Write a sequence for this structure.
């Protein structure tokens, strides 16, 4: 049986994506869709089920049961196990698949991994991480360079280019002011081991740290963000059409990530909400 959340999800996107394609993606037939749409009244949900259903639809099925429980528990008390059972019953779970990429390096100068996967920090702008990822755009690729603050996983600088070169990394780093002893972590790609990036980071007062070669897990927090961006972007907005639209979608997703998307490790707050709440506590 197809749940009504799936029917509502299909209805949300039919104005932008052909019904045939949506049904193929969800692995259901059009006749099944029309049957459940016509007989919606026969699929009644309890109040708690309706609340969970609406939250899952509102968050584009990006969250698992723990985050949905955190949201619903703000106004309707229930156990996390009940939320888990209901979401499993109607197949309302997170629909995201993780993707990983690996790029070889051509080092000019290497640095030790002084972060060593310890991203915990109580102050902003102390532990930063950076990386470049690809963004599909029709039959070509765009490249996104980002810098994340591990204090709250906020993207504090980003730049999109047609080429994954050193200039892209320099333009991104130049969006930040003097770093005054902050650690900036990267992989060992030629972009980050170049003389130009070395000189710019030194002038900004940054301490360098690098992942071990062939070990993307050493920079997992920004790898995870890039994976979320590429897999979640299609759920939060229409599929990009062309260069300008792809750039707009990426910028909108980063704004969504910083200001709206809640993270479990931040107490189910968005990065910006967490930063502001910590600042208020320290004042």
């Amino acid at each position: 049986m197809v749940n009504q959340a799936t029917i509502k999800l299909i209805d949300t996107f039919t104005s932008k994506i052909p019904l045939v394609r949506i049904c193929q993606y969800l692995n259901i037939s059009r006749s099944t869709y029309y049957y459940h749409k016509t007989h919606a009244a026969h699929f009644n949900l309890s109040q708690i089920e309706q609340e969970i259903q609406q939250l899952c639809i509102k968050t584009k099925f990006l969250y698992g049961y723990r985050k949905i429980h955190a949201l619903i528990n703000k106004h309707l008390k229930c156990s996390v196990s009940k939320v888990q059972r209901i979401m499993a019953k109607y197949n309302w779970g997170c629909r995201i698949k993780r993707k990983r990429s690996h790029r070889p390096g051509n080092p000019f100068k290497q640095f030790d991994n002084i972060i060593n996967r310890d991203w915990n920090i109580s102050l902003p702008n102390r532990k930063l991480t950076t990386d470049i990822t690809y963004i599909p755009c029709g039959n070509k690729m765009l490249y996104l360079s980002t810098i994340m603050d591990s204090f709250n996983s906020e993207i504090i600088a980003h730049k999109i280019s047609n080429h994954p070169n050193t200039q892209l990394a320099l333009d991104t780093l130049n969006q930040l002011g003097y770093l005054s002893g902050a650690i900036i972590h990267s992989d060992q790609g030629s972009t980050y081991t170049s003389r130009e990036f070395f000189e710019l980071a030194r002038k900004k007062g940054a301490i360098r740290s690098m992942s071990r070669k062939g070990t993307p897990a050493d920079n997992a927090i920004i790898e995870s963000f890039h994976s979320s961006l590429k897999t979640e972007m299609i759920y939060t907005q229409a599929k990009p059409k062309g260069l300008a639209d792809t750039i707009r979608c990426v910028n909108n997703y980063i704004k969504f990530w910083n200001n709206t998307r809640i993270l479990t490790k931040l107490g189910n707050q968005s990065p910006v909400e967490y930063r502001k709440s910590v600042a208020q506590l320290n004042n």
Summary: The chain has two domains: 4-89, 127-282. The first strand starts at residue 127 and ends at 137. The mean pLDDT is 87. Residues 52 and 72 are 7 Å apart (CA to CA).
